[in-house]
Amino acid sequence: MKLSVQVHLIEAGRTIKDNVKWAKDHGVEGIELTAEPHEDLKRTAEAVLNVLPVSSICGMFDEQGQKAFDLLAPEVEKRRQAVELLKANLRLAGQFGAAGQIVPPMFGPPRVPDLSPMADPVKIQDELMVAHCRVLGPFAAKHNTKMLLEPLNRYEQSYMRTQEHGARIMRRAKVKGVALLSDLFHMHIEETDTPATLRAVAGKYTGSMHLADNTRMEPGTGDIDFVAAFRALAKVRYTGYMAYECAIFGSSRKERTRNLAKSLRYMRACIAKAKRAR
Fold first, then answer.
1. pLDDT-based confidence at 222, cuts 50/70/90?
2. 101 close to 89: Cβ distance less than 8 angstroms
3. What is the DSSP letter of 258?
4. With 9 labelled, which of 30, 130, 211, 273 sits at a CA distance of 20 to 30 A?
């Protein structure tokens, strides 16, 4: 289990390199990049890689600078463009040595038609995702990285809300280069037993993780039992990254930096306690 932090959450220094050095000094082992146009993403990665590995890429921009996850759009051209954008980001993830590009299949309600009784939207979306995985998985594997499928909670998307749903798509696709992004915040909403779910899926399917408390703020500010989650991860010998994807409490850079440092200390203590109790 390796701690990672999204690059924009670190505000301790004047430059990205200064911030990454601060992160390393506070026990962080990787940096997650967030959505930028490709040239900007490359520059950010170069600054990060001088100090720490890039753990993953979260988010994706299209040519107009808008975030784009249209794998389940009803329009063929939008799906084609989404696949090409993902290929470009997966290529970058491979160049950066990252675990993968994080891919929420969609946001919001279904966009495909309900063709019941032949096929409802979930069945149609499943078929599309299996087909996409069979294209993008081998492409990711060729570039030594992964397409990281991220189930989201019911308030953000209508499709693929549980870890088992993502694992089911992977089992049907039967290709390398696809893994789960297991987010403890979303799991806290959708899973009835997060540690049990992690024991079931993390060892075989999880390629990377996101950390946030139930408040969607930094870990340690809510009621998620991180020790129990980390104990489950230790049991299945999960050794991947766990990246902070959250907001940080504080009205100033100095206060947010102090709270991030406090949370990182808390996370390291939780990991240590979980390993002792495994």
1. very high
2. yes
3. H
4. 273
